Amino acid sequence: MRLENVAVVGKREYLQRARTKAFWIMTLILPLFITAISVLPALLLSKSKAYQRLVVVDETGKLGADLVARLNFRESPKPKEAAESSGRRRARDESGMVSFEAQAERPAADRKAQRAALDRQVMEKKIDAWVWISPGVFADKPVEYHARSVSNVFTQDALRDELSSIVRQARFRQAGIDPVRVEELSRSVSLDPQRVSAKGSRAEGSLGAAVLAIIMFFILYVSIIMWGQQVMQGVLEEKGSRVIEVVISAVTPFELMMGKLLGICLLGLTQLTIWLGTLLVITTPGVVTAMAFLPPGVSLPTLSPVMLINFVLLFILGFLAYATLYAGIGASFNNLQEAQQAAGFAMIFVIIPVMIMYPVINDPNSRMATVLSLIPMFTPLLMPLRIAVDMPPGWQLALAYLLTIGFVVGMVWFCSKIYRVGILMYGKKPTFKEIWKWTRYA
Amino acid sequence: MTPILELRNVRKAYGDFVAVADVSMAVPPGSIYGLLGPNGAGKTTTLRMIMNITPQDSGEIQVFGHKRTSEDLQRIGYLPEERGLYRRMTVIDQLVFLAEIHGLKKAKILPDIQHWLERVDLAPWAKKKVEELSKGMQQKVQLIGTVLHQPELLILDEPFSGLDPLNQELFRDLLSEYRAQGKSVVLSTHGMELAERLCDHICLISHGRAVLDGNLKEIKRRVGGNSYRVVAEGDLNRLQELPEVEQAAVNNGVVKLLLRPDASGPETLRRMVEFLEVHEFRSEEPELEQIFLKAVRDAA
């Protein structure tokens, strides 16, 4: 095998595909999607008047000062944000998305004129909104809220929460109950999930780890299938356009196949790098304070370097195993329709891991998960899943790599024999028996 | 002179079907060598074996004076019978790729590509994808791709089939240039007239066997001693019945007559006038087609 030939072929495969719009759309759509469902909502809300200058008019004389103080100095659960908010004399709600700059105003003698004046201020954008607390508030009468836009549900939520809690405290005080005691006594209870396994009880990997494992699994799944099929289509195209004969008059079929595999593998890695990069940024603590699509209290764990390395290595091995098979299939048939049946058969190897994905996440060290993740065809998809949830023992990982590398070498050896004969075979669709015979040609 | 390409008793069978039974040939440097034969004779298989696309079952193939290596193949320009290019590559990328798989560097070959594209009027199409080109233009691209790396030996399978007249002209010029530079060309064709015009050497293949091999002029001299042109009236088909007549091709009152080597021309003429009114009887060079038919019959 001459490496320069492999490089020339690989370069062509890489550049031809990297220059297409389809590649970049496919590559950028996933990060955009992930960003959209995680970063964007938070970003949008923080931009969309999450900061409000608010005038509070209190007729009751009991609530106004409290509300203004709470809105401006409200305690935040995160120390960093608390410091920030007190520093800027601005309060934030719990998700850090809404802040106020509130000021109280005494009710004037002419209420009508005062309301009109406040409305004018809103229109002139001197303030963003005003609330009017009438004595009826203790009799369940709604509090008036006037703003240029009233679709800012998050801001209204925050305001309503504050109002409710102040009114509630006032009611407690009227009834002779200490509101601080009430708050203290109405704490909720949390659960600490422990999974019982052969090794005894231990804290279960968080939901975040499972989510990350699933995301990684599907990235791998999509990449391996997509790029494997690219190899098959590439082979079929060379065969269909008959360019193959010119090419293999200068490079050997093996060099051509390896060049194709490596070129497309590198392109897959390029895409993977972009995808993982996005994931890395998103899972970095502090970048996304609120993962909009995750249940409250769950955040994605950071991608560890060990995970990343395993992920990339297993992608390469998984790709090589599947893509080599696809190369053999592409070479055996004359067109995509003919190849479809065999390609469908090859899909079994990626579909089985999908079917047992949830059991593996749930119990990554069960006998089934262990055995299946050591079968080379399944290792590239199942091992990352186990690694993400709970690092498997070192010997299992080593064995998995050893078996998979051996398997890839075997696949390359076997499929290159089919490939060599198949790429020059035209005419009727070969049977599997005939293809089997090709492997025994000298 | 060492042959630039030599085949010794090469054989290839697919299962029970013997595509090439036994072919030996030697291509001298600086020549255009024609591999002739009807469809299915084994020409394409022979050329594919030379390019190591299909390995031979037995026999030996020598290129540039030694046993063929994969490096040698990069010094050969090959045009397969079934033409094909990457449809979605631009003309220039395509040619760069074809040059690169023959061991050339992109920077070095770009001026050559430019030169070639200008020569065949394709320069404005350099950045277009191959699928946007007409069939004739694709043929030109393919021809450039075959000769771009300045091969010392060209292997062309039916180079003129499907070519429009302009491209045929272009190709013939190219072949002459090649011969003038002392390089060699092996081409297969079933068009005898074309081979007669172009080739210095020929190898006739029939049913997978080389039945005749050598310098075209020598072959003609050897076989042609007993070839005559006859213009006559009467039942011309009776000529075939004469024992010394090897072959009598009748066309519009003109007969191309090939006699057995030991037969005498004047003797035949004497017999002929008994049943024909002969206007003309003269000795001439035989046509390749006659030689071919005779060789096939002799081999059988």
Could you please describe the fold and organization of this structure?
- The complex is a heterodimer of chains A (442) and B (300).
- Chain A is of the alpha/beta class and 442 residues long.
- Chain A has two domains: 3-40 and 205-438, no CATH class; 49-181, 3-Layer(aba) Sandwich (D-Maltodextrin-Binding Protein, domain 2).
- Chain A contains 17 helices and seven strands.
- Chain A has helices at residues 3-18, 21-47, 64-73, 79-87, 111-123, 153-174, 179-185, 207-240, 244-247, 253-283, 305-332, 336-355, 357-362, 367-374, 379-389, 394-422, 432-438, and strands at residues 51-58, 91-92, 99-105, 129-133, 144-147, 194-197, 200-203.
- Chain A has a five-stranded mixed beta sheet with strand order 2-3-1-4-5. In chain A, strands 6-7 form a two-stranded antiparallel ribbon.
- In chain A, a hairpin with a 2-residue loop joins β6 (194-197) and β7.
- In chain A, α11 (305-332) packs antiparallel against α12.
- In chain A, 36% of the residues are buried.
- Mean pLDDT of chain A is 81; it is low at 75-95, 199-205 and 289-297.
- Chain B is α/β, with parallel strands linked by helices and 300 residues long.
- Chain B folds into two domains: 5-220, Rossmann fold (3-Layer(aba) Sandwich); 225-299, Alpha-Beta Plaits (2-Layer Sandwich).
- Helices cover 34% and strands 30% of the residues of chain B.
- Chain B has ten helices and 14 strands.
- Chain B has helices spanning 43-50, 70-73, 91-100, 106-119, 135-147, 165-180, 192-198, 216-224, 265-272, 288-299; strands at residues 5-14, 17-27, 32-36, 58-63, 66-67, 76-79, 153-157, 184-189, 201-206, 209-215, 227-234, 245-251, 254-259, 276-283.
- In chain B, strands 6-7-8-3-9-10 form a six-stranded mixed beta sheet, sandwiched between helices. A four-stranded antiparallel beta sheet of chain B has the order 2-1-4-5, with helices on one face. Chain B has a four-stranded antiparallel beta sheet with strand order 12-13-11-14, with helices on one face.
- In chain B, β9 and β10 (209-215) form a beta hairpin.
- In chain B, α3 crosses α4 (106-119) and α3 (91-100) packs parallel to α5.
- Chain B is elongated and about 75 Å long.
- The A-B interface holds A 2, 4-5, 8-9, 11-12, 16, 237-238, 241-252, 424, 442 and B 51-55, 70, 73-74, 76, 78-80, 82-89, 93, 97-98, 100-103, 145-146.
